[in-house]
Specification:
Oligomer: single chain
Strand content: 35-45%
Radius of gyration: 21 Å
Helix content: under 10%
Shape: globular
Number of helices: 1
Strand order of the largest sheet: 5-6-9-8-7-12
Number of strands: 28
Largest sheet: 6 strands, antiparallel, barrel
Structural class: mainly beta
Order of helices and strands: EEEEEEEEEEEEEHEEEEEEEEEEEEEEE
Number of domains: 3
Length: 350
């Protein structure tokens, strides 16, 4: 996982136009799931998928501000709230975005994008997405009571719809390499959910080995923890679009967070040290055998929890890896808990 490969397409200029027209940057990355060091032991690897599936639809949308429906039971194990967005003049076919799970990448007011699962749609351009907050709710960006707040997402914006990553789509090409004692761990926000390869060649919850969880969605900001029992490595290759704008996640309390960019970044490049970050919040980086904790010290730098006077701003976070984020106090307003990961590369570099 230290040396992912990334290929970027170059900008194309059409001589008949005064404008530069860019192709969509495409690339691939290689991710290694390390084998157990010896028979009878296991290894753990934190991974994520940072390249994007191809765009199935792109267009302008209106967010229905009055349609936000919060989760009635506030149970993190169930779907959160929902909200409707509308593409004027568009016609969807039945099951177009739900027969296979799809996510809508919604552009915020600063040009970044956040992905939301599509749960339903009608045939006249309306889409219902899963969200923990109203997209048009006001956000206290600077914590200054003397300045006006504004929503993160404008009422009129744009979306890109892409197929969602699932356990099946991520691991299907290499599923024969997994053994029955291997496990995939996904953090739900409050606990780990684990999956195994069952006797039918499907991914199943460990609580129901006869089940089929191939369509379990892995969100773009979500990392995975892989426990490997066999001594051989598993090498995965991911293909897809290279992110061309900053990537947004929401972390109210705890998350196994993808590093969001398909090349190595740094601890300071994750976008975590923002106005919401508090002195008792922590980031834990998996070093191959244990979690190593980091905090923001009194100088505004990242430092190991064992040496708060240190400076770990330039600590390398490997591409397609994940870090565990935990806030000491939960952010009460989900709309105010954005983590914005900037790009550390020029996606249109020649």
């Amino acid at each position: 996982m230290k040396f992912p490969i990334l290929l970027l397409t170059s900008a194309l200029v059409f001589p008949t136009s005064a404008n530069t027209v860019y192709t969509i940057p495409q690339g691939y990355t290689k991710v290694k799931i390390s084998g157990a060091p010896s028979a009878g032991t296991t290894s753990l690897t934190a991974i994520s998928v940072t390249l994007l599936n191809d765009t199935a639809f792109s267009g302008s949308v209106a967010i229905d501000s009055g349609s936000f429906n919060p989760d009635p039971d506030s149970n993190p194990a169930t779907l959160n709230g929902t909200q409707k967005i509308n593409v004027s003049g568009q016609t969807w076919t039945a099951g177009q975005w739900t027969t296979i799970p799809h996510v809508a990448y919604v552009a915020d007011g600063n040009g970044g994008e956040q992905a939301f699962l599509i749960t339903s749609h009608n045939t006249s351009g309306e889409i219902t997405i899963v969200t923990t907050f109203s997209l048009t709710a006001n956000v206290d960006h600077d914590k200054d009571p003397g300045t006006a707040d504004q929503s993160r997402f404008p009422a009129s914006t744009s979306i890109k719809i892409r197929p969602a990553n699932t356990l099946g789509s991520i691991f299907s090409s290499q599923i024969s390499d997994f053994v029955s004692d291997d496990r995939i761990f996904v953090w739900t926000g409050t606990e780990w959910t684990s999956f195994l390869k069952n006797g039918f060649g499907n991914w199943a919850p460990t609580t129901n080995s006869f089940g089929n969880a191939n369509d379990a969605v892995i969100f773009p900001d979500e990392g995975m923890f892989i426990l490997r029992s066999a001594t051989s490595d598993i090498n995965l290759t991911f293909f897809g679009e290279v992110p061309i704008v900053s990537q947004i996640a929401n972390v109210k309390k705890q998350a196994l967070l993808s590093n969001r960019v398909p090349i190595d970044t740094t601890l300071s490049g994750l976008g975590l040290n923002n106005s919401d970050w508090q002195s008792d919040d922590r980031v834990f980086v998996w070093d191959g055998s244990s979690w190593v904790g980091y905090l923001v010290n009194g100088f505004g730098n990242w430092a190991p929890v064992t040496n708060s006077f240190g400076n770990s701003n330039n600590l390398v976070i490997s591409a397609n890896s994940a870090v565990f984020v935990t806030r000491e106090s939960e952010i009460s307003d989900a709309a105010d808990s954005a983590v914005i990961t900037p790009l550390n590369y020029n996606p249109f570099a020649e």
